[in-house]
Specification:
Blueprint lengths: L5 E2 L4 H9 L6 E2 L6 H4 L6 E4 L4 E3 L2 H4 L12 E2 L14 E5 L5 E3 L1 H5 L3 E9 L5 H7 L12 E10 H8 L7 E6 L3 E3 L2 E3 L2 E5 H4 L10 E6 L2 E2 L9 E3 L12 E7 L6 H6 L8 H6 L9 E6 L4 E3 L2 E10 L8 E7 L7 E2 L1 E2 L9 E9 L5 E8 L22 E7 L1
Parallel strand pairs: 1-2, 6-17, 19-26
Antiparallel strand pairs: 3-4, 4-5, 6-7, 8-9, 9-14, 10-13, 10-17, 11-12, 14-15, 14-16, 18-20, 20-24, 21-22, 21-25, 23-24, 25-26
The structure holds ligand MTE and molybdenum atom.
């Protein structure tokens, strides 16, 4: 993939302030908004248009607990397919008693569930990995995350209808997009363990076949007409433009399960073969305002951001702490949104800064008492960056 991010935003001044710190290699172009996005009055910063990869400016991200669609990041590996909803069919096959081919109308006859869940990309915060050693791939800041209200059908209900056979252990998903990689063209695919697929919880099921996002039909960019939403898991398992579900005794052989989303030091074929696919997102947090490089006067500053629980049933965020003195002392942030196992926790804090303040540092603690790690091990593909968040400031 080529990296010449074109940045389009309504207010270019905000943009320049927002992106000035460490924006090496970024082009600031006041070009036209990409059409798919213009329709939604997007406020996204676009890393690439084809495929579409974009994230919101960080201060926009924490304005509301439920992220408006126009501020929700988009991460696509291939084209954005245009799907005719009338002829669309979702097939359910593999280790099932009765294979299914479901139309939209048939899907709508399953019991409908509304689920608020956070979606985040495994590559979120990749720029921070890249500071140690540059990594190829979309240079995500801290904005490849969003919280939405999804509505649709529990995967467990669909699997019950098809009847899962005894040997089943994994559930594969396939999209209708075409991705080009290594001279081949194929559909994006994901895979989750059967146990996760069958978690039949009411508030947050293991996985949902979502048809709406924030009470409106999914937009083309977010997977119309049907996408998976797998709460707690990396975004890559929430396959968009879902067309096929396969029940199997093994994880999907799709490139994005077998090779791509893995934690590897160098990315040799041996390492890739030896390592398991990534499923869950770890405990994480980020300061969204002020942004890196902000010029402030000495005094009190209002800061805000998000924290993400680790996607384990029953585990939420307990505490969020900020330091303005290199970690010598920590201030408790106020948790400003509902606490939920599979949603981000918004927070705000009021801290004193002076001319000695070089940066703000953030860390989150979950309800098991686990603390976000101070540092993380660099990995060749730049996934799961969840070290304490540092935001350099200029106070004078
Ligand atoms: N079919 C398909 N599904 C996909 C992708 C894709 O490229 N194709 N990208 C995945 C990745 S890596 C992420 S992080 C999420 C992003 O969802 P969003 O674009 O709705 O924010 O979609 C996932 N589902
Ligand atoms: Mo992703």
């Amino acid at each position: 993939m080529k990296h010449s991010p074109v940045v389009s935003l309504i207010n270019r001044r905000t943009l320049l302030r927002q992106w000035s710190a460490g924006a090496i290699g970024l082009m600031f172009v006041s070009g036209k908004l990409p059409s798919a996005i213009a329709a939604e009055e997007s406020r996204l910063l676009v890393h690439s248009k084809a495929p579409m990869n974009a994230e919101p400016p960080l201060p926009d991200l924490v304005r509301s607990w439920v992220t408006p669609v126009e501020s929700f990041f988009i991460r696509s590996h291939g084209n954005t397919p245009e799907i005719n909803a009338d002829s669309f069919r979702l097939s359910v096959e593999g280790l099932v008693e009765t294979p299914l081919r479901l139309s939209q109308a048939e899907l709508s006859r399953f019991e409908q569930h509304a689920v608020t869940a956070t979606l985040t990309c495994a590559g979120n915060r990749r720029t921070e990995h890249s500071r140690f050693k540059p990594i190829k791939g979309v240079q995500w800041r801290e904005g490849a995350i969003g919280n939405a209200k999804w509505r649709g059908v529990k995967l467990s209900d669909v699997l019950k209808k098809a009847g899962v056979r005894e040997a089943a252990k994994h559930v594969w998903f396939e999209g209708l997009d075409s991705v080009e990689d290594g001279g081949k063209t194929f559909a994006f695919g994901g895979s989750i363990p059967l146990e996760k697929a069958l978690l039949d919880r009411d508030v947050v099921p293991g996985a949902l076949l979502a048809t709406t996002m924030n009470d409106k039909p999914l937009t083309a960019d977010h997977g119309f007409p049907v996408r998976m939403v797998v709460p707690g898991y990396i975004g890559a398992r929430s396959v968009k433009w879902l067309s096929k579900i396969v029940v199997s005794d093994r994880p999907s052989p799709n490139h994005f399960v077998a090779d791509v989303y893995k934690l590897v030091d160098e990315g040799t074929l041996l390492e890739v073969a030896e390592n398991a696919p990534i499923y869950r997102m770890p405990l994480n947090s980020a300061i969204c305002t002020p942004t890196a490089g902000a010029a402030l006067k000495p005094g009190r500053v209002e800061i805000a951001g998000y924290a993400l629980p680790p996607g384990v049933p029953g585990v939420a965020i307990r505490k969020v702490e900020v330091s303005a003195d290199q970690g010598r002392s920590w201030v408790d942030a106020k948790l400003t949104s509902p606490a939920s196992e599979f949603c981000w926790q918004l927070w705000s804090a009021d801290v004193a800064v002076n001319s000695a303040t070089k940066e703000l540092i953030l860390r989150a603690i979950d309800s098991r008492g686990e603390v976000q790690p101070e540092t993380v091990r660099w990995n060749a593909k730049g996934y799961l960056f969840n070290a304490w968040h540092h935001v350099p400031l200029k106070v004078s």
